[in-house]
Structures are given as C-alpha cells and as structure tokens.
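User: Just a sanity check before I run the rest of the batch. Below are the structure tokens for the first item. I only need the designed sequence back.
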C-alpha cells in the first residue's frame, strides 16, 4: 500500500486523451468485499445501466446491452479477491465491448494479478529510490537545491523524514 497504484490509475482515467478514446468509463472501488452482485451493480450505476434489481442475471444482461459494441474503460480499484470463478462471473457481461475496451485492475496481491491477467501484461509499481524520494519530498517542501544546501539542518531533517517514508510516494 502507498506505492501509488490508485493515484496512477486515477491519473490515466482522468486524462483528456483517455476520456476522448472511450465511449464509456467506469470506476469502482472493490476492496476486500468482493461480491459479484455488488460490484456488477456498481459498474452498472457508473455506466448508467438499469440497476434496480438484485437479480445478477438481469443486471448482467442490462450491463451487456449497455456496453455491446462500445469501447469502454472500467477500473476495478483495490481488488483483493483471488477466486477465479467469481472473477469470471464478474467479467461475463464485459466481454461484449468493442475492440480496444480495457479493464484496469489495481491490486497488491500477486495471485490476483495472475488471475485477472487474461490479455495484456501488468505493471508492478515499486518503491522509489532514496534519490527519487528526496527529489519528491524537496519539491513538495518547496526546497530548491540551493536552499537545501544552504541550510544543512533542513536537509538533514528532510532526509530523515524521507528515510522513514521507506520509498512510498503516498507517505511522501
């Protein structure tokens, strides 16, 4: 946690080029409560599909009808579920999109990566190096290189803070 998975996904999702490319976009925060009905309903609400039912088959058919032939981007943020059958059930109505449709999943669990990686590769975000951490910290603290070298006390305190953040951008 804290390495920037959600932040990177949000940056992509909200980018003007991405918004122009896709007919439909949906963002669903999944977390550890992976209920196929609940997540399907959340996707349906995002794409403005009829969702006033608790019948998964009807809900998935409505979602399929809404997405058929359209290029979509669906982000499933913070997926923890490792159950392959649940995953297959969830994506069943999402197989109808136009060529180029994407499902972007953020997770910190390797098994989830292998489960959802059906078409394209994955990107693993790692912690930042000490130099990169210092650069981010100094930038956000409004410390120019000249200021930090002029005041060694500030630099010493800043570098101690950076060390405690252990390479996590969110902590910085």
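Assistant: Here's the designed sequence for the first item:
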């Amino acid at each position: 946690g804290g390495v920037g998975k959600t932040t990177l996904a949000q940056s992509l999702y909200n980018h003007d080029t991405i918004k122009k490319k896709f007919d439909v976009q949906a963002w669903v925060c999944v977390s550890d409560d992976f209920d196929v009905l609940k997540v399907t309903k959340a996707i349906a609400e995002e794409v403005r599909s009829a969702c006033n039912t608790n019948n998964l088959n009807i809900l998935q058919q409505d979602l399929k009808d809404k997405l058929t032939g359209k290029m979509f981007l669906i982000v499933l943020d913070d997926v923890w579920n490792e159950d392959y059958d649940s995953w297959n059930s969830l994506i069943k109505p999402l197989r109808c999109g136009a060529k180029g449709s994407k499902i972007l999943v953020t997770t910190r669990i390797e098994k989830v990566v292998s489960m959802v990686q059906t078409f394209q590769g994955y990107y693993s975000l790692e912690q930042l190096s000490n130099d990169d951490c210092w650069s981010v910290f100094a930038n956000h603290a409004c410390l120019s290189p000249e200021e930090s070298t002029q005041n060694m006390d500030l630099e010493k305190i800043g570098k101690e803070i950076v060390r405690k953040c252990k390479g996590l951008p969110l902590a910085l």
